[in-house]
Amino acid sequence: MSDKTTLVAEKRTDFGKGAARKIRRSGNIPAVMYGHGTEPVHISLPGHDTMMALKQANALLTIVIDGKEQLALAKDVQRDAIKPVIDHVDLVVVRKGEKVVVDVAVHLEGEAAPETVVTLDNNTLQVEALATNIPENVVISVEGLQAGTQILAGAVELPEGATLVTDEEALVVNVTQAISAEELEAELAEAEAEAGIEREESDEDAAEAAEGESEGDEAKAEGDDA
């Protein structure tokens, strides 16, 4: 990923919750940019453009302040708990040729063998890559994999230029045998019995029980007649 999004920012001179609310009311987003031993710079970012840019994980941003450009990555994005808006952004300064450590999403493709279940134990991998060439994702094929197959982080093929930071022994993909409905029902019943939970008899169970009792009564009547 080498495309950069340019955001024109304004320096902030007012701070605090009241100032931040005022910025958000105007359609902008309060942010702070720091790194490489420089003093933190408090800025205001254009709301819509920033939200669109941050839809892409690890997006490389070109922040323009007073006509000067600075490359940055979003280190922390604070989002409103209810509204689909961003409350604040922490940006870390990066430079061309510099390597950074980021979390990259794992994407599965293909279909495993029939009657198997594929579990993604780690949905991201931490990798080191050039700030100007951060991979969008890591792709793992599960095509035809049989039950019992496990893929560890060290076996994952990474995009060119990226090196693994995550522990090589970390489990990423686990392929197991699918459980049948009967086995699932039996396991659930066993777990409930161990927990002392009594099941309510379903209409279907009641009907089967009644049918069994009816057949038993008929057999007894036939025995008596004989």
UniProtKB/TrEMBL annotation:
Question: Which residues lie in Basic and acidic residues bias regions?
Answer: 217-226
Q: Which SUPFAM superfamilies match?
A: Ribosomal protein L25-like
Name the domain of life this protein comes from.
Answer: Bacteria
Q: Which UniProt keywords apply?
A: Ribonucleoprotein, Ribosomal protein, RNA-binding, rRNA-binding
The secretion signal range is none
Where is the sequence biased in composition, kind Acidic residues?
Answer: 186-216
Q: Has the keyword Ribosomal protein been applied to this entry?
A: yes
Question: Which positions, given as ranges, span the membrane?
Answer: none
Question: Which CDD domains does this UniProt record tie to the protein?
Answer: Ribosomal_L25_TL5_CTC
**What are the boundaries of the region Disordered?**
186-226
For this protein, the record's Gene3D superfamilies field holds: Ribosomal protein L25, beta domain, Ribosomal Protein L25, Chain P
Q: Which residues form the Large ribosomal subunit protein bL25 beta domain?
A: 99-177
Q: Which residues form the Large ribosomal subunit protein bL25 L25 domain?
A: 7-91
General function of this protein: This is one of the proteins that binds to the 5S RNA in the ribosome where it forms part of the central protuberance.
PANTHER family in the cross-refs: RIBOSOMAL PROTEIN L25/GLN-TRNA SYNTHETASE, ANTI-CODON-BINDING DOMAIN-CONTAINING PROTEIN, RIBOSOMAL PROTEIN L25_GLN-TRNA SYNTHETASE, ANTI-CODON-BINDING DOMAIN-CONTAINING PROTEIN
Quaternary structure and interacting proteins, as annotated: Part of the 50S ribosomal subunit; part of the 5S rRNA/L5/L18/L25 subcomplex. Contacts the 5S rRNA. Binds to the 5S rRNA independently of L5 and L18.
Name the protein family. Belongs to the bacterial ribosomal protein bL25 family. CTC subfamily.
**How is this protein named in the record?**
Large ribosomal subunit protein bL25
Q: Which gene encodes it?
A: rplY
